[in-house]
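Newbie here. two chains, one complex. Structure please?
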Amino acid sequence: MSAVLQNLVNQPYKHGFVTEIESDVAPKGLSENTIRMISAKKNEPEWLLEFRLKAYQQWLTMEEPQWPNVKYPKIDFQAISYYSAPKPRKKLGSMDEVDPELLRTFEKLGVPMHERAALAGVAVDVIFDSVSVATTYKQKLAEVGIIFGSISEAVHTHPDLVKQYLGTVVPVGDNFYATLNSAVFTDGSFCFIPKGVKCPMDLSTYFRINTEASGQFERTLIIAEEGASVSYLEGCTAPRFDTNQLHAAVVELVALDNADIKYSTVQNWYAGDENGVGGIFNFVTKRGLAKGVNSRISWTQVETGSAITWKYPSCVLQGDNSVGEFYSVAVTNHHQQADTGTKMIHIGKNTRSTIVSKGISAGHSNNSYRGLVRIAPTAAGARNYSQCDSMLVGDQCSASTFPYIQVRNNSAIVEHEASTSKIGEDQLFYFAQRGIGGEEAVSMIINGFCKDVFQQLPMEFAVEATKLLGLKLEGSVG
Amino acid sequence: MSVATASGYLESLLQGRAQLPISPLAWLNRLRAEAVERVGALRVPTTHDEDWRFTDISSLTKLPFQPVHAASPLQTAEAERFYLEPATIRLVFVDGMYAPQLSTQVPGAAGDSGIVVTHLSAAVSAHATTLESHLGRHAEFCNNAFTALNTAFLHDGALIIVPRDVAVDMPVHLLFIATQKEAASYPRCLLIAESGSAVTVIEDYVALQQGVYVTNAVTEIALADNAHVNHIRVQRDSGQAFHIADCAVSLARASRYQSTSIALGARISRYNLNVQLAGEGAECAVDGLALITERQLADTHTCIDHIKPHGSSRQLHKCIVDGAAHAVFNGKIMVRPGAQLTDSVQSSRNLLLSGRAHVDTKPQLEIFADDVKCAHGATVGQLDSEEVFYLKSRGLSEMTARNLLTYAFGAEIIERIPVSSLRHRLKQTVLEHTQRN
């Protein structure tokens, strides 16, 4: 295992997060026993253990993918600890104890006061009664029949639902990291919207206090029954520091007839320092199954963090007339690497998909869009429109586009376009002429460039994401 | 298909090499030996290789192709129908072997300018140094089993040298005729355009009759400063044949390369085109048309590599796919660090005419410089119903309207060919193709 990884794993908690769980961490390494131990600790039913073991057996036969356009030292999977009990943070007494660097970031992002406290790990009830806020939300959701909680909880409370859907969208042997996740996942979110229910509010992990630290192998499952609709927010704009270098999450979405799922992500994991030392490896498998007729799955992501992002939120458009959408902004700076995009698999008739991807690379970073649009022979009248634009800031970075278009039906129409541009001297001059300084001008240009995607974000997220981008690219121009 | 049998297959192909004459040039023998070694180390690509993901050539390895050693005594009457009017400077190769009885000499006016149009073995002594610096230097065979094979069999081929500041009006027609079944031919072309020169070259692959054979062609083109080359490539092989070709082009400062490649024949065809813009301000325009039907597969892989600043490239690739045919396009545009002010546009347009036709297209950009303009686009679809309606409202029948639009789709590429007789002939082919339905 690389020294880098060692350092990161052994690094003490920064920024006032204190851990006292050393005693409840599984020994490093992965074997059948580790999996049995995880399952036993979580008191899981037999079928879930079988699910995990099956995944583990498959994983042993698989090889790490080599095709992504990213470079990193080889990961030693036996040097990772696959289980640690939820980490109770030491609650801080007041905002004064919080790392000033973190506060500066909050200030720049414009995170509301009460949220800052929660994010920084200050005992929330000291500052603001956010626990009760969360409880109120939970009650409201329960009234309409929505199940929203951690997946390990759902395994016990709603085993039939979990058993019915788990692994149906991302099968056990899907890919190297998804299979690893299936074997060792520790926790994540579970959300079930019953027939005909429109979720009364945006669901967010943010208010799900119980699974705050869900660990490196997160598993999310969202099911929208006939006619249901939900908007789900993941992550937050504030930087998150984590001691785990490898993150391999799996997200599965299932939309039945006329259902609508909107999944928004803002990812700002620790990206490593200016020299590319440290940072999270984010290898995520996200996939939505638009199973029913007229169903709709929409992914929106703002990816700014992680040393390496490897992520392709996909839509399998199985139901007739189903719709898939993908809106993405990926920003890389310093030595970050991102290989991200989407897959739109058209199976049903008259299925439609839209892809809008904006990549910004600065510093020495490497930003790739990789996408697949596949029209199956059954997908008569399918329609796809893809647009992926890249912007380069500085001459040391790179941007690549790898769109795969596979069409097996002649009544389908597929369009793809991509362009690359830079922030021109003339554009900056125009701003300067109007009395707007360099940094601000760049921020405005970039926000204009990303507008199509930000419009898809829930309002609060959009405001913060705009500022986040400015912060991310601070000092990279001029 | 296991790797073991596949590599055995490549070695079986090499067997015919024993009969090759040893070249008087030591470096050429060395080059061949290197290539033989590479063939031994490489294996036949399978669909597990990213570059061959959509093109399954396992059927090729089931057939025992042997190289041709004796040129067939083809008579003018049989070859005549492939000649182009008005007159061209013509070199004819039958199954990869030079056929002097069918080729023409460089006519007086052009001959005085010093242009060399000959076959390689005739040029060995006169142009030894030029050959050494170009032959096998542009087409990499390190990772390409087929190019390695061709290089292993390298002993003859077409050679064109256009001297400094000479513009040749008369096009050069390189005609490759396949006559034998179950034969493997290894055509080779080398074109050297010295600084300030201009030339039009037509590389034309035809078959005398239907039959299974394999053509494994390699073309190398070197453009010196300010040179201008117009390269037209027509592949009209037999409908059962395999056609695998590799073309490497190197552009020096302010040179201009225009290429139009038309793929009509072959059961499975694969064309690799690598264009290196290795000098400042180099320009290239790379166009292609694949018109395929039944169970044909046409695969085009291009790579336009911008190495130096101020380069520009334009690419338009079109596929008309009918029957159960399969078109593959992979177009890579690379902008290397430092290749600032590059201007590149690439477009892949595909027309699917039948329910069983399919297309895999992958336009690809890899950019390592910031001050560039790069764009690419791809579309796949059928004829626009509004356009069909418009023509119907003008009194055309549905069928005529569709044929006309399909013809127009293909004609956009053919129009770019500067040789009128060839242009006319190809348009006729597209017209026949569209009317067959």
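Moderator note: The mean pLDDT of chain A is 80. The interface with chain B takes residues 67, 375, 377, 390, 392-422 of chain A (CB under 8 Å). Thread marked as resolved.
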